[in-house]
Amino acid sequence: MKIFFVPNDLIDLGSTNGSFVNGLKIAAQKKIYIDEGDEVKLGRICFDLR
After folding, report:
1. Which pairing describes strands 19-21 and 39-42: parallel, antiparallel, or unpaired?
2. How many domains does the chain have?
3. Would you report the helix, strand and coil content of the chain in percent, each value rounded to 5?
């Protein structure tokens, strides 16, 4: 899994299983803004931002 996380930003660097925010798949190499209350899924791991 290759994920780059900076507070409030998430970039999937080409992970095998993909990354999802609120059920939507993140395109590889695209920076996405994440905010409190968002659900993030990285492979089998799922968590809510608080």
Report:
1. antiparallel
2. 1
3. 0, 50, 50
Q: How many CB atoms lie within 10 A of CB 19?
A: 22
> What are the pLDDT digits (tens) for 27-38?
999 989 998 899
**CA separation for the pair 40, 21 (Å, rounded):** 5
- Could you list the residue range(s) of the whole structural domain that residue 27 is in? 3-48
Does the global pTM surpass 0.85? no
Per-residue model confidence as pLDDT tens digits over 3-49: 556 678 888 988 888 999 999 999 999 989 998 899 999 888 998 88
Q: How far is CA 44 from CA 18, 40, in A?
A: 10, 10
